[in-house]
């Protein structure tokens, strides 16, 4: 089957994302956009992803648990989990690695936990837009220990891309999928960083507003929408990554 996936979407819990990005609204917009699978990937938190999974279960939309972690090197890495418990445990390990710095909502924006019925649960007090005290290889290992998949985000882009900040793909990620930006076609990324040819290059919207959900996506040909099946499809080249810049 073909699985249209957008696996990089921010919710209202990310200070940089719009308040309209409630878990229920994200799921509903993702359905309209013809997606089969999404992941809510807030900065250094999985919390709204739990409510997105609830909203998804009701609407028949599969939702992976996710987070966009920021490492000590200021590299953004998407971390995906199949099961809620894996994501909860991973979150429990990562959250204490975030500096104890309060969010200033007037400057960075609100960080709102919203449930599957659009009720505000709480405001996150710690600034999520910050680097965790963990390196890229350590994070990749921690994600694997918890049964998840780590995919460095927008690897070719400044200021948080893996290749921009490290200049190379660490050996821990040999042959593994990487994400390139929504607005960066594959050929363009390869011109800048030829080493990317050794990796499956996925694309997602990195949406911060509802209208952007699905603007870039990856269509996997896989027997089921599980992480293992997606990874196998990516490594075998059974996918198509598409973005707005490809259509003039
Ligand atoms: Zn990012
Ligand atoms: Zn992002």
In words, what does this structure look like?
By secondary structure, the chain is α/β, with parallel strands linked by helices. It has a single domain (2-247), classed as TIM Barrel, CATH 3.20.20.140. It has 8 helices and 11 strands. The strands form 3 sheets. It has a 7-stranded mixed sheet with strand order 7-4-3-2-1-10-11, with helices on both faces. It has a two-stranded antiparallel sheet with strand order 5-6. A two-stranded parallel ribbon has the order 8-9. Helix 7 (186-192) links the parallel strand 8 and strand 9 (201-203). Helix 1 (23-32) packs across helix 2 (47-59). The longest helix has 13 residues, at 47-59. 51% of the residues are buried. The model has no long low-confidence stretch (mean pLDDT 96). It binds zinc ion (ZN) (2 copies).
Produce a short descriptive summary:
The protein is an alpha/beta fold and 248 residues long. 28% of the residues lie in helices and 21% in strands.
The largest sheet is: 7 strands, mixed
- Specify the helix fraction band: 25-40%
**How does the helix and strand content classify structurally?**
alpha/beta
- Beta-strand proportion: 15-25%
CATH homologous superfamily caption:
Metal-dependent hydrolases
Question: If you average the pLDDT, what whole number results?
Answer: 96
Listed once per kind, the bound small molecules are: zinc ion
Give the tally of β-strands: 11
Overall CATH architecture: Alpha-Beta Barrel
Distance between the termini: 28 Å
Rg from alpha-carbon coordinates: 16 Å
Number of domains: 1
Mass-distribution shape: globular
Strand order of the largest sheet: 7-4-3-2-1-10-11
CATH class: Alpha Beta
Low-confidence runs of at least 5 consecutive residues: none
Number of helical segments? 8
The H/E string reads: EHEHEEHHEEHEHEHEEHE
């Amino acid at each position: 089957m073909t699985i249209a996936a957008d696996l990089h979407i921010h919710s209202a819990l990310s200070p940089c994302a719009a308040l309209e990005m409630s878990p229920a609204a994200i799921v509903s917009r993702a359905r309209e956009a013809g997606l089969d699978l999404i992941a809510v990937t807030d900065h250094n938190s999985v919390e709204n992803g739990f409510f997105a999974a609830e909203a998804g279960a009701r609407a028949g939309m599969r939702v992976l648990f996710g987070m966009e972690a920021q490492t000590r090197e200021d590299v953004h890495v998407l971390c995906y989990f199949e099961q809620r418990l894996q994501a909860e445990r991973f979150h429990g390990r990562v959250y204490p690695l975030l500096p104890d710095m309060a969010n200033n909502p007037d400057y960075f924006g609100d960080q709102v936990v919203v449930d599957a019925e659009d009720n505000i649960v709480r405001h996150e007090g710690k600034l999520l837009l910050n680097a965790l005290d963990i390196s890229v290889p350590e994070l990749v290992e921690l994600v694997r220990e918890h049964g998840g998949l780590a995919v460095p985000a927008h690897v070719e882009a400044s200021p948080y891309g893996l290749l921009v900040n490290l200049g190379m793909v660490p050996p821990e990620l040999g042959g593994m999928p990487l994400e390139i930006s929504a607005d960066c076609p594959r050929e363009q990324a390869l011109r800048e960083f030829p080493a990317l040819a050794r990796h499956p290059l996925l694309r997602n919207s990195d949406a911060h507003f509802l209208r952007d959900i699905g603007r870039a996506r990856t269509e996997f040909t896989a027997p089921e929408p599980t992480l293992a099946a997606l990874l196998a499809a990516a490594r075998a080249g059974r996918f198509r990554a598409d973005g707005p810049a490809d259509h003039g």
